[in-house]
Amino acid sequence: MDFFETLMFPFKWLVSIIMVGFHEGLSGIGLPEASGWTWTLSIIGLVLVIRAALIPVFVKQIKAQRGMQLLQPDLKKLQDKYKGKTDQLSRQAMAQEQMAMYKKHGTNPFSACLPMLIQMPFFFALFTVLSGISTARDRGEGIGAMSHEQVTQFDESTIFGATLSASLLHGGEGNLTAVWILSIIMILAMTASQFITQKQIMAKNMSEEAMASPFMRQQKMMLYILPIVFGVGGINFPIGVLIYWTTTNLWTMGQQFFVIRRMPTPGSPAAKALAERRAAKGLPVLPVLGGKKVDAEAEAAAAAAVAQAKSQRIQPQRKNRKKK
Q1: Is CB count within 10 Å lower at the N or C end of the chain?
Q2: Is residue 196 in some structural domain?
């Protein structure tokens, strides 16, 4: 067993245990054990368990992203302060001031990537499990918590005529045309959902300062690079993995929609829209995230919107009579 397999071993067991648990539960309520749809729902169940467990990490990610966006003007000033200074002492001083700034605001550039990094071992574990299904079946072995009988069931199960362990490059058994069509549809759905999620963040949940910062240029690059990377890599993903990744992207899209609508970044178009909605209801205080108010500036904007809405209800004639 090489280093990678040793590293993935506990994740493979955890992934397979969750899938087997859902499979047995679904079979217990009447779904066919060997059906591809039963195994598909088991993969979706795996996504739900992992993403539900990552909700606290997701909240930290949102705080980190928000903090990084709000920090951009200060970071720009810091970069201008040390512009043209390439000596070791200046670079060290800049790094120290930058770290102190991150610490003061409780954020860092890596926190925004934390959910993705935590998910990757489970993704690779699922990829390893599904890619090894046919080999384990031929050897008469199981994989992780999956018995040989369950491995055989999975390898023979299909949805729309395509086996879950097949991929675009490695058709496997079953209808190759169905494998190609379903793989292409799933790859497009996977990349489109990832693109839309990032696009809605940039379009609705970034302040004007963040939009003009170097951080925004990196975000724009990631907007196009990540879907391309996953789209190209998707041709080698088993259909079961494509189902997993598309489902987790849809979960992320739903989470981002909720956050953008209910807890937007201060100064962003979404924050202004929220202030207007709450002003119409006479609610000056914004919702909270992690027990703290989102931002004093955003709350003041909401209060101003309420005051403006109230002033519009006063009749002009009455105001003129008071002036006289």
Answers
A1: C
A2: yes
Residue 237 is given by DSSP the state S
Tell me: the pLDDT tens digits for 45-96? 999 998 888 888 777 777 777 777 677 777 778 878 888 787 888 888 888 8
Contact 63, 107 (CB under 8 A): yes
Rounded Cα distance, 175 and 161, in Å? 6
Same domain, 165 and 30: yes
Last residue of a domain, one of 237, 262, 287: 262
Is 242 within the bounds of a domain? yes
pTM over 0.85? The answer is no
User: What is the percentage of the chain residues whose pLDDT exceeds 70?
Assistant: 78
147, 148, 153, 156 alpha-carbon torsion, rounded to 10°: 150
Do 248 and 282 reside in the same domain of the chain?
A: no
Question: Where in the sequence is the domain holding 286, given as residue range(s)?
Answer: 270-323
CA–CA separation, 255 and 218 (whole Å): 22
Asked if 183 and 306 sit in the same domain, the reply is: no
Q: Map tokens 């088991």 to a residue.
A: 42
Q: What is the largest CA-CA distance in the chain?
A: 97
| 236-246 pLDDT tens trace | 888 998 999 89
Confidence of residue 170 (pLDDT cuts 50, 70, 90): confident
Where do we find the tokens 């299904």? 133
- Among all chains, which residue has been given the structure tokens 């729902």? 41
Establish if 93 belongs to a structural domain: no
Q: Kindly tell me if the per-residue pLDDT of 16 is higher than 60.
A: yes
State how far the Cα of 37 lies from the Cα of 159, in Å rounded to an integer.
6
Overall domain count for the chain: 2
How many other C-beta atoms are found inside a 10 Å radius of the C-beta of residue 21?
Answer: 15
SS3 284: coil
Collapsing DSSP to helix, strand or coil, 98 comes out as helix
Joined tokens for residue 29: 């309520």
